[in-house]
Specification:
Length: 205
Protein backbone atom coordinates (compact mmCIF):
# COMPACT_ATOMS: atom_id res chain seq x y z
CA UNK A 1 0.00 0.00 0.00
CA UNK A 2 2.79 2.42 0.99
CA UNK A 3 4.71 1.51 -2.16
CA UNK A 4 1.64 2.25 -4.30
CA UNK A 5 1.20 5.66 -2.64
CA UNK A 6 4.87 6.51 -3.25
CA UNK A 7 4.53 5.49 -6.90
CA UNK A 8 1.44 7.66 -7.30
CA UNK A 9 3.18 10.65 -5.74
CA UNK A 10 6.21 10.10 -7.95
CA UNK A 11 4.00 9.88 -11.04
CA UNK A 12 2.16 13.07 -10.10
CA UNK A 13 5.45 14.89 -9.56
CA UNK A 14 6.78 13.70 -12.92
CA UNK A 15 3.57 14.79 -14.63
CA UNK A 16 3.91 18.25 -13.09
CA UNK A 17 7.51 18.46 -14.34
CA UNK A 18 6.40 17.64 -17.87
CA UNK A 19 3.56 20.18 -17.76
CA UNK A 20 5.88 22.92 -16.48
CA UNK A 21 8.43 22.24 -19.22
CA UNK A 22 5.80 22.03 -21.95
CA UNK A 23 4.07 25.20 -20.78
CA UNK A 24 7.27 27.21 -21.12
CA UNK A 25 8.27 25.69 -24.46
CA UNK A 26 4.82 26.02 -26.07
CA UNK A 27 4.67 29.64 -24.94
CA UNK A 28 8.16 30.47 -26.20
CA UNK A 29 8.25 28.48 -29.45
CA UNK A 30 4.62 27.81 -30.31
CA UNK A 31 2.99 24.44 -30.71
CA UNK A 32 4.59 23.47 -34.02
CA UNK A 33 7.98 24.74 -32.89
CA UNK A 34 8.02 22.46 -29.86
CA UNK A 35 8.77 18.75 -30.12
CA UNK A 36 8.06 16.07 -27.56
CA UNK A 37 11.80 15.42 -27.48
CA UNK A 38 12.40 19.03 -26.49
CA UNK A 39 9.80 18.77 -23.74
CA UNK A 40 11.40 15.55 -22.52
CA UNK A 41 14.85 17.14 -22.44
CA UNK A 42 13.56 20.17 -20.53
CA UNK A 43 11.77 17.91 -18.03
CA UNK A 44 14.86 15.71 -17.62
CA UNK A 45 13.21 12.50 -18.82
CA UNK A 46 12.99 10.42 -21.98
CA UNK A 47 10.52 10.96 -24.81
CA UNK A 48 8.85 7.66 -23.94
CA UNK A 49 8.52 8.95 -20.38
CA UNK A 50 6.52 11.91 -21.68
CA UNK A 51 4.33 9.61 -23.76
CA UNK A 52 3.70 7.45 -20.70
CA UNK A 53 1.84 10.37 -19.14
CA UNK A 54 0.54 12.03 -22.32
CA UNK A 55 -0.17 9.79 -25.33
CA UNK A 56 0.33 12.55 -27.91
CA UNK A 57 1.51 16.13 -28.30
CA UNK A 58 -2.12 17.20 -28.71
CA UNK A 59 -3.01 15.58 -25.38
CA UNK A 60 -0.06 17.33 -23.75
CA UNK A 61 -1.16 20.71 -25.09
CA UNK A 62 -4.70 20.14 -23.83
CA UNK A 63 -3.37 19.38 -20.34
CA UNK A 64 -1.07 22.41 -20.45
CA UNK A 65 -3.93 24.74 -21.39
CA UNK A 66 -6.03 23.43 -18.51
CA UNK A 67 -3.06 23.78 -16.14
CA UNK A 68 -2.47 27.34 -17.33
CA UNK A 69 -6.02 28.35 -16.48
CA UNK A 70 -5.92 26.58 -13.12
CA UNK A 71 -2.73 28.40 -12.16
CA UNK A 72 -4.33 31.71 -13.08
CA UNK A 73 -7.51 30.99 -11.10
CA UNK A 74 -5.49 29.87 -8.07
CA UNK A 75 -3.36 33.01 -8.24
CA UNK A 76 -6.36 35.36 -8.20
CA UNK A 77 -8.19 33.28 -5.57
CA UNK A 78 -11.33 32.71 -7.63
CA UNK A 79 -12.88 30.58 -4.88
CA UNK A 80 -12.11 33.00 -2.03
CA UNK A 81 -15.05 34.01 0.15
CA UNK A 82 -16.14 37.62 -0.38
CA UNK A 83 -18.72 40.17 0.67
CA UNK A 84 -20.79 42.37 -1.61
CA UNK A 85 -22.31 41.89 -5.08
CA UNK A 86 -21.05 38.82 -6.94
CA UNK A 87 -20.85 40.81 -10.20
CA UNK A 88 -18.49 43.32 -8.60
CA UNK A 89 -16.31 40.46 -7.37
CA UNK A 90 -16.28 39.12 -10.95
CA UNK A 91 -14.94 42.47 -12.17
CA UNK A 92 -12.23 42.34 -9.48
CA UNK A 93 -11.24 38.86 -10.68
CA UNK A 94 -11.09 40.04 -14.29
CA UNK A 95 -8.76 42.87 -13.30
CA UNK A 96 -6.60 40.47 -11.28
CA UNK A 97 -6.32 38.13 -14.26
CA UNK A 98 -5.23 41.04 -16.45
CA UNK A 99 -2.56 41.99 -13.91
CA UNK A 100 -1.36 38.39 -13.80
CA UNK A 101 -1.12 38.33 -17.58
CA UNK A 102 1.06 41.43 -17.39
CA UNK A 103 3.57 39.59 -15.25
CA UNK A 104 3.35 36.29 -17.16
CA UNK A 105 3.67 37.09 -20.84
CA UNK A 106 4.58 33.49 -21.72
CA UNK A 107 1.40 32.17 -20.11
CA UNK A 108 -0.75 34.80 -21.77
CA UNK A 109 0.74 33.98 -25.17
CA UNK A 110 0.12 30.30 -24.61
CA UNK A 111 -3.59 30.78 -23.95
CA UNK A 112 -3.85 32.81 -27.16
CA UNK A 113 -2.30 30.10 -29.35
CA UNK A 114 -5.75 29.05 -30.48
CA UNK A 115 -7.59 32.33 -30.10
CA UNK A 116 -8.53 34.07 -33.35
CA UNK A 117 -7.70 30.95 -35.36
CA UNK A 118 -3.93 30.81 -34.92
CA UNK A 119 -2.50 28.45 -37.53
CA UNK A 120 0.12 27.34 -35.03
CA UNK A 121 -2.36 25.49 -32.83
CA UNK A 122 -4.02 22.12 -33.56
CA UNK A 123 -7.76 21.55 -33.64
CA UNK A 124 -7.84 20.43 -30.00
CA UNK A 125 -6.56 23.86 -28.95
CA UNK A 126 -9.17 25.64 -31.04
CA UNK A 127 -11.87 23.52 -29.43
CA UNK A 128 -10.47 24.31 -25.97
CA UNK A 129 -10.42 28.02 -26.77
CA UNK A 130 -14.00 28.03 -28.06
CA UNK A 131 -15.25 26.17 -24.98
CA UNK A 132 -13.29 28.46 -22.68
CA UNK A 133 -14.85 31.59 -24.18
CA UNK A 134 -18.34 30.06 -23.99
CA UNK A 135 -17.77 29.11 -20.35
CA UNK A 136 -16.50 32.56 -19.42
CA UNK A 137 -19.47 34.25 -21.06
CA UNK A 138 -21.97 31.87 -19.48
CA UNK A 139 -20.47 32.15 -16.01
CA UNK A 140 -20.27 35.95 -16.16
CA UNK A 141 -23.83 36.26 -17.42
CA UNK A 142 -25.08 34.00 -14.62
CA UNK A 143 -23.24 36.01 -11.96
CA UNK A 144 -24.66 39.26 -13.33
CA UNK A 145 -28.18 37.83 -13.42
CA UNK A 146 -27.86 36.62 -9.82
CA UNK A 147 -26.71 40.06 -8.71
CA UNK A 148 -29.64 41.69 -10.50
CA UNK A 149 -32.06 39.28 -8.81
CA UNK A 150 -30.49 40.06 -5.43
CA UNK A 151 -31.09 43.76 -6.00
CA UNK A 152 -27.36 44.55 -6.05
CA UNK A 153 -27.45 45.80 -9.66
CA UNK A 154 -29.83 47.76 -11.82
CA UNK A 155 -32.80 45.69 -12.95
CA UNK A 156 -32.46 46.63 -16.63
CA UNK A 157 -28.91 45.32 -17.15
CA UNK A 158 -28.52 42.97 -20.11
CA UNK A 159 -26.47 40.17 -18.56
CA UNK A 160 -25.58 38.39 -21.82
CA UNK A 161 -24.48 41.56 -23.61
CA UNK A 162 -22.43 42.71 -20.60
CA UNK A 163 -20.72 39.32 -20.35
CA UNK A 164 -19.90 39.45 -24.07
CA UNK A 165 -18.49 42.97 -23.66
CA UNK A 166 -16.24 41.91 -20.78
CA UNK A 167 -14.93 38.75 -22.44
CA UNK A 168 -14.41 40.57 -25.73
CA UNK A 169 -12.58 43.45 -24.04
CA UNK A 170 -10.37 41.12 -22.00
CA UNK A 171 -9.35 38.88 -24.89
CA UNK A 172 -9.00 41.74 -27.36
CA UNK A 173 -6.85 43.85 -25.06
CA UNK A 174 -4.67 40.84 -24.27
CA UNK A 175 -4.17 40.16 -27.96
CA UNK A 176 -3.19 43.80 -28.63
CA UNK A 177 -0.77 43.74 -25.70
CA UNK A 178 0.84 40.52 -26.95
CA UNK A 179 1.48 42.28 -30.24
CA UNK A 180 2.78 45.46 -28.57
CA UNK A 181 4.07 45.18 -25.00
CA UNK A 182 4.11 48.98 -24.59
CA UNK A 183 0.30 49.02 -24.46
CA UNK A 184 -1.21 49.20 -20.97
CA UNK A 185 -4.01 46.64 -21.26
CA UNK A 186 -4.56 46.61 -17.49
CA UNK A 187 -5.24 50.36 -17.37
CA UNK A 188 -7.64 50.11 -20.29
CA UNK A 189 -9.54 47.24 -18.68
CA UNK A 190 -9.74 49.11 -15.37
CA UNK A 191 -11.36 52.06 -17.12
CA UNK A 192 -14.03 49.74 -18.48
CA UNK A 193 -14.64 47.97 -15.16
CA UNK A 194 -14.80 51.31 -13.30
CA UNK A 195 -17.44 52.58 -15.72
CA UNK A 196 -19.42 49.36 -15.31
CA UNK A 197 -19.25 49.49 -11.52
CA UNK A 198 -20.77 52.96 -11.65
CA UNK A 199 -23.37 51.97 -14.22
CA UNK A 200 -24.26 48.75 -12.40
CA UNK A 201 -25.34 50.58 -9.23
CA UNK A 202 -29.09 50.29 -8.56
CA UNK A 203 -31.14 53.40 -9.25
CA UNK A 204 -31.80 55.38 -6.08
CA UNK A 205 -35.41 56.60 -6.02
Amino acid sequence: MARTRVAEQSGAARRSQILAAALTLFAENGYRGTSLSAVAAAAGISRSGVLHHFPSKEALLSAVLVERDQQAFDAVEVDRAFEGPAAVRALDILEALAVRNGGNRELARLSHLALFGSADAPEVAHEWSDERIRTYRTDLARVIEQSVEAGDLRADIDADATALLLVGAFTGLTELWLRDASLDAVAALRILTSLLRRDFAPNQD
